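Lab notebook, bench 4. The sequencing result for the construct came back, and we need a structural model before the next group meeting so we can plan mutations. Quick request posted to the team channel:

Model the 3D structure of this chain.
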Amino acid sequence: MIDLKDWLKLQEDGLEACSNKRYVQAEEAFLEALKLLQEQEKELGVDADLAIRQSIKEKHALSLNNLAATYQLQGKYGLALNEYIKSTDIYRKIRGENSLDFATSLHNLGMVYAAKKDFQQAEALFRRTLEIKEKLLSATHPDLQAIKENLERVLTQSGKRKKPTADY
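Done. Here's the predicted structure in token form:
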């Protein structure tokens, strides 16, 4: 059984390294955290308590998400997409497609597609994210505004919306 403190420490170390642009260190910490979780899953096996397995899956998804963000910050979009997709799949399985975690994962995927200038994919993901989060959050929640801004940016960049002109 892994010690949750070890996993948390690796997550904290990875986040701190990432915020200080020490991406290699961040990547190493998140990969080590994933390794701990994989070892835990092997130890538990299929007969483990459902709540424990779900908790490990949630931590796995979070670690994948953090690793993906690290790759994204470095412009390693292919690697970021792979990890975000894995994270999104886990959230789909454990939380369902109408959950905040799943919607946030979709938004993260959309951000990578936008960075890769795949505006069609980004638009679809932002629209789906907005649809889910509008059902779950208040109309004034800041997440909604951020998603709308990202969607508008993608629509402008793709030529579907004209850039606003300043009236002087």
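The chain has a mean pLDDT of 91.
Will bring this to the meeting.
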